[in-house]
Amino acid sequence: MSNKFKKLSLGVITVAAAALLVACGNSSSSSKTQESSSAKKEQIVIATDGDTKPYSYVVDGKPTGYDVELAKKVFEKLPEYDAKVEVTEFNSILTGIDAGRYQVGANNIGWSEERSKKYIYSYPVSKTDNAIATRKGDNVSSLDDLSGKSTEASAGVNYTEILLNWNKSNPDKKEIVVNYADNLPLGTRLGDVESKKVDFVLHDTISLNTVIKDQGYDLQVSPIKIKDDGNAYSGKDFFIFANDEEGKKLEEKVNKVLADFEKDGTLKELSKKFFNGNFVPDASDYK
Q1: Which of 86, 192, 219, 220 has its CA 20 to 30 A from that of 201?
Q2: Where is the signal peptide (predicted)?
Q3: Right CATH number for 130-223 from 2.40.30.170, 3.30.230.10, 3.40.190.10, 3.40.50.2300?
Q4: Which CATH number fits domain 42-127+235-286: 3.40.50.720, 2.30.30.140, 3.40.190.10, 4.10.910.10?
Q5: Residue 119 backbone dihedrals phi, psi, to 5 degrees
Q6: Burial, 253: exposed, middle or buried (Cβ in 10 Å; 0-12, 13-18, 19+)?
């Protein structure tokens, strides 16, 4: 082999090796940048029970529903967070937020005075009417019509508090019998109404109509006006956060996105998709 050829070969090898080192360096730098970017993101776990259709339910092993999909869209607008959805029992949503396992609760969560002392609420994300599901022929137009009748309910839920408050305010009447059934799915409770185990279920109109239709129950749903319910939050659905500095920071950022979604029609679009109608709160709720 000539000296000239040897020099040329060595030159090619040297250039190739240098190019490889540069490529490796760039790859390593890119990898470190991605790792650094990922490390900067704060981890957020959104808790839901996957059993409150159409707000939260599971399809092919994945949680979806109005509240779930809205929460996902909200955090897509907040790139500083890496958010994931976790399915758990309803009562575990609250205890999980207390323990710091979850940062957001998204599960058709209504407002209650007791709960408001412990958690921070977002702007409302949907609004519907309170309603009573009964067997057909059992006409109900007010809570007074439920005197002496029985239901199944979870402790600490706003619907349960409505019934308990009625009992306290009407000591001269037969009390509404509340059988506590924590973590009992709405579908099961409605089945217990149909089988005459209990007389009624108080819930929101959207959920009652959805579950009754899906499961083929022969029940009727009657919208009901709660007298003196004492707050402007009746019938509204919220995200909730821990009542601490991190929760307050999250609430501010989430509320800003929700206000944008109200303006650009995102809330209305999701409402029509999951509720078959416009159940978005008034624009004044986002100020």
Answers
A1: 86
A2: 1-23
A3: 3.40.190.10
A4: 3.40.190.10
A5: -130, 160
A6: middle
